[in-house]
Amino acid sequence: MPQTAEHLTITRHGHVAELALNRPEAMNAVSTALAEELAAACSELARDQDVRVTVLTSTHPKAFCVGADLKERNRFTDAELVRQRPTARAAYTGVLELPMPTIAAVHGYALGGGYELALACDLIVADPTAVVGLPEVSVGVIPGGGGTQLLPRRVGSARAAELIFSARRVAGAEALALGLVDRLAEEGQDRAEALELAAAMAAHSPVGLRNAKRALRLGEGLDLRAGLDVEDAAWRATAFSGDRAEGVAAFNEKRAPNWPGE
């Protein structure tokens, strides 16, 4: 049974949680209310040991998310904008810090803060209608949902600089070629392909998935020796878990594992 908030829906597909942006009247523009709901939903999912993979989707047929709600922000005083900032940051940080693998399913517009939500996920599955970009400098701001840090890690500093400074929007096939997205599904199939990929991942050890993600994330930006120490700590946390014992037993007994998730 889906859990529905005003602007979000959480649906469970076995061990996969689908977190759907659902503010169609504004193409899922991130308002204060949506940011609050997103942060709360991520906090809930982060604590749910039954969730092995999370997929971020959109209910709007022509947009993933068009970014910050500029109509709302146009009414803000400077003081109100300052007060709203921690709420916005909590939403993006909530997605970024989910402990399980995350996949964004993107079609239509994913611009500014909308593309930053996708960047906060581990993988991005898009369809040919996807249009992604960080155009914030064209309206007098800069990416503030992690874009200046996450995009260079994905495509390199020079390419990220070109895209951010030019405010250029990039469509499906070119976005795949530049590494702005990771897979290009058939038109209209981004959600289905992302859920299929998530289901395949969710068949694996939940302890392994979370610790592998932890090693990948914590190792970013470290030198090789420090990164290998991060990997070793994650390996030790996994190797002495109930999942490791079950995985080895299932392999030797030629059966599917029944992961304890401990």
Automatic annotation (TrEMBL):
PROSITE patterns: ENOYL_COA_HYDRATASE. It comes from the Bacteria. InterPro entries: ClpP/crotonase-like_dom_sf, Enoyl-CoA_hyd/isom_CS, Enoyl-CoA_hydra/iso, Enoyl-CoA_hydra_C. Pfam families: ECH_1. Keywords: Lipid metabolism, Lyase. Transmembrane segments: none annotated. Belongs to the enoyl-CoA hydratase/isomerase family. This is Enoyl-CoA hydratase.
